[in-house]
Amino acid sequence: MGRTRLDPSAVPTPLSPPAPPTWDGDAAGLICGYAFEPGGQQPVRGIDLEAARVRIEAQAQQPADGAPDASFMWLHFNLSHAPARAWLERHAPLPDSFHEALRETQPSTRVERADDLLLAIINDVHFDFGFEPSDISTLWVAVGPRLVITARARPLRSIDALRTAVRAGHAPQSSTELFEQLMRAQADALVGIVRSVTARIDAVEDALLAGRPDQQRARLGGLRRVLVRLQRLLAPEPAALFRLLHKPPAWMGEADAQGLRDASEEFSVVLRDMGGLQERIKLLQEEIAASVQEDNNRSLFVLTVVTVLALPINILAGLFGMNVGGIPLAEDAHGFWVVVGIVASFTAVAAWIAFRKK
């Protein structure tokens, strides 16, 4: 089964568009909720927490050997609302490892199986990403055959792109495909960041060629810190997902598993591009450092030459300035010019020594 990239503008408007969910007014911190009915007349529609709780309880009472149901739900929570965690613990059929991950202060990036669910702790950039290392936060994801739970504490760019596509009528055919498209949205967000960083690096390189290196060192340092942090936090995702897909859950179809592999490969390509940008920034920083070092050496050489040329007159001035008897040429009518000649001669010798290698 083919996979398409998220593009809300390219998705035709459904006959019955989903009702808009309540964004921030839900008492339990629900940002959005959707019920998907693949193959139905209304493949996606908005759902609130009460309806979601009823569906979860009904699914729990269905026999395990019953007819497979292709419908599933997606609930997206805001962890800044304190009741969100309580609702998840009380009503969502999630493993203890998911709740333990929510309590971690610095969760590590991972994708693993937990009680036949796919548990992912991934990182994403903030919606208002400002190229600061702190503009990265964690997204918690739990994927099952009939339920997808996502939770975040700060607005994130990739999950918002997925939510926008679903609101426009894009209806994934399975919970695994929804997670796949989340990864593709994350890769698209990284591609946008890479393009923006590339444009900034090009501007810095143009300024460097124009002879203004000192003004660009801080900009390059900030961009490199952002890329290093992004790569450090995001690099484990493809490898972890590849390890998981060697033995996928029984409910995950082969087409869905292959779609996740393709999304992981695309994600890995973006990460390699980020690594290439880091090397380019490193080379520019080294070139700027070499240019600054050359300017410093030139200034130090000029200072050394001035010091050497002033050495003879300073020595003679110090000697003749002593208030002692026996100073030569003190009574000579041409003593001043004799001393000037001596100083000029020593200065010329010092200048020759200083500039002979030039």
UniProtKB/TrEMBL annotation:
One MF annotation (Gene Ontology) recorded for this entry: magnesium ion binding
Keyword check for Cell inner membrane: yes
Localization per Swiss-Prot or TrEMBL: Cell membrane
UniProt entry tagged with the keyword Transmembrane: yes
Annotated membrane topology: Multi-pass membrane protein
Short name of one Pfam family: CorA
Assigned keywords, A-Z: Cell inner membrane, Cell membrane, Ion transport, Membrane, Transmembrane, Transmembrane helix, Transport, Zinc
Entries under Gene3D superfamilies matching the protein: CorA soluble domain-like (3.30.460.20), Magnesium transport protein CorA, transmembrane region (1.20.58.340)
Region annotated Disordered, chain positions: 1-23
Membrane spanning residue stretches: 300-322, 334-355
GO cellular component, one term: plasma membrane
Matches recorded under SUPFAM superfamilies: CorA soluble domain-like (SSF143865), Magnesium transport protein CorA, transmembrane region (SSF144083)
Family: Belongs to the CorA metal ion transporter (MIT) (TC 1.A.35) family.
Name of protein: Transporter
Taxonomic source organism: Xenophilus arseniciresistens
Lineage: Bacteria, Pseudomonadati, Pseudomonadota, Betaproteobacteria, Burkholderiales
